[in-house]
Specification:
heterodimer, A: about 230 residues, mainly alpha, MetI-like fold, 11 helices, about 80% helix, about 0% strand, flat, B: about 250 residues, alpha/beta, six-stranded mixed β-sheet, 9 helices, globular, binds adenosine-5'-triphosphate, binds magnesium ion
């Protein structure tokens, strides 16, 4: 089998048409995931079992099952519920795009929740005590002391998670979405040149992952300005 | 100090960690403006006792009354006490993500609801008082240990407390920085602040303290003036402790 570099170059702009959907899937699911992660984090550290248990079950489920299975469950499962079909959100929820954002967001939320919890546990207990001694309330201590430090501690792990979500968006092509992988699969069925076309797709993902990585590394450096060098 | 009303009263305070008895019937009273130094061997309960005063630890028995508020589960009393009591920790506990000035402004803004300009003015006043106004915009990690501890003292003073608690404020410092922190504390004492200070700096204790309390194994073993404590300690345990401390 010989590789046709020209075909790779030619297919790049075609596959790039899928970038928009890939990007939207990534950003929406990442934001949804962060929201869920914050809510479940607060539930878990609330110290109330009726909040912490549901959060733990959610995290356990989404970390323990394949994303593809989750996408299928949501894509084929949501229409089974009459109240969902009858809801005003149905025009959105029936779309594969929304199903993928929900599945990817739920999945990412479970992981990010764990990452943030690690960050919170990494914050020096002495700092919250100083906050108490100064008279700050428990929510004030969380917002002004614990959270900013926990976020900085979480960024390296979050950066990995973000890129995992980017790669997971490729699964959206299984429910007919025309993201980068979806477009690539369509091209393959037209040209019978899977080798070159998937290499082109891989190049696009790599470039995208690299940009995300650089952006998050910049954010991390910014968030760590106050940390002593060499410490 | 006789006749002045007590602002801190500990009455038969007990504190257990599991089966371990960290404080056993500790009774103590500190009057307004009084300077109390607490000393004793490691693990004797000094930190536990001082941390009970602002409810960083919850006592299991007895009563603690600070500035007229009894410390109970009632969070209003706890809030009231914490607003009136400042605390300085052994390892500073400055907020690493905030600059010095923002460390000082945080609590006055959130707890006292001061606006930015008021909070900044108060913060600058106390930074001058601890003699580091020019470090206001640095992060704590950019300061020396002695400077960080002075910032921590200023941060507590910004809340305008009636009482200051110090838990071994110089123990984490290099020897050459101890004096600059003790100087600030001596100034504070001279201005009439009520102070409870866990420290092994016996020179400071001798010159500043009105009373010294010696703890061992969760109990107050001796309470005396510095003069009496240093020249004729009443118990063998205190004599031993002093000979170890003063041998250095
Ligand atoms: N959170 C805790 N859980 C269990 N035991 C504790 C806890 N905090 C303190 N202790 C124990 O209580 C005892 C008293 O501790 P404390 O910190 O009050 O001593 P200290 O006099 O301040 O000693 P040091 O001079 O070392 O600071 C010690 O034996 C310590 O191990
Ligand atoms: Mg201690």
């Amino acid at each position: 089998m010989t590789l046709d570099p020209q075909l790779i170059l030619d297919s790049l702009p075609l596959i790039a048409q899928g970038l928009g959907i890939t990007l939207k899937l990534l950003l929406y699911s990442a934001l949804f995931g962060i929201g869920l992660a914050i809510i479940t984090l607060v539930m878990r550290i609330s110290g109330r079992w009726y909040l912490s248990w549901p959060a733990q079950v959610y995290i356990y489920f989404f970390r323990g099952t394949p994303i593809l299975v989750q996408i299928f469950i949501i894509y084929y499962g949501l229409p089974q519920f009459g109240f969902i079909r009858g809801s005003i959100l149905w025009p959105i929820l029936r779309e594969p795009f929304a199903c993928c954002v929900i599945a990817l967001g739920l999945n990412s939320g479970a992981y990010v929740s764990e990452i943030l919890r690690g960050g919170v546990l990494g914050v020096d207990k002495g700092l919250t005590e100083a906050g108490k001694a100064l008279g700050l309330s428990s929510p004030q201590r969380f917002i002004y002391i614990t959270a900013p430090i926990a976020i900085r501690l979480s960024l390296p792990a979050y950066s990995n998670e973000f890129i995992s979500t980017l790669k997971a968006t490729a699964l959206a092509s299984t429910v007919t979405l025309m993201d980068v992988t979806g477009v690539a699969r369509t091209l393959v069925s037209q040209t019978y040149a899977p080798y070159e076309i998937f290499i082109a797709a891989a190049i696009l993902y790599l470039a995208f992952a690299w940009i995300s990585y650089v952006a998050l590394a910049w954010l991390e450096a910014r968030a760590s300005r106050y940390v002593k060098k060499g410490n | 100090m006789s006749g002045a009303q007590p602002v801190i009263v500990l009455d038969k305070v007990c504190k257990n960690f599991g089966a371990f008895r960290a404080l056993i019937n500790v009774s103590l009273s500190v009057s307004k403006g009084e300077k109390l130094v607490v000393c004793g061997p490691s693990g004797s309960g000094k930190s536990t006792m001082i941390r009970c005063i602002n409810r960083l630890e919850e006592h299991d028995g007895g009563h603690i009354i600070v500035n007229g508020h009894e410390l109970t589960k009632d969070s209003r009393n706890i809030d009231a006490v914490r607003r009136e009591v400042g605390m300085v920790f052994q390892n500073f506990n400055l907020f690493p993500h905030l600059t010095v000035i923002k460390n000082l402004m945080l609590a006055p803004r959130l707890v006292r609801h001061k606006n930015k300009d008021e909070a900044r003015a108060v913060a600058m006043k106390y930074l001058e008082r601890v003699r580091i106004p020019n470090q206001a915009d640095k992060y704590p990690s950019q300061l020396s240990g002695g400077q960080q501890q002075r910032v921590a003292i200023a941060r507590a003073l910004c809340m305008n407390p009636e009482i200051m608690l110090f838990d071994e404020p110089t123990s984490a410092l290099d020897p050459e920085m101890i004096a600059e922190v003790l100087d600030v504390m001596t100034d504070l004492a001279r201005d009439g602040m009520t102070m409870v200070c866990v420290t092994h700096e016996m020179g400071f204790a001798r010159s500043v303290a009105d009373k010294i309390v010696f703890m061992d194994a969760g109990e107050i073993v001796e309470a005396a003036t510095p003069e009496a404590f240093f020249t004729k300690p009443q118990t063998e345990r205190a004599r031993q402790f002093l000979s170890q401390i003063l041998a250095h």
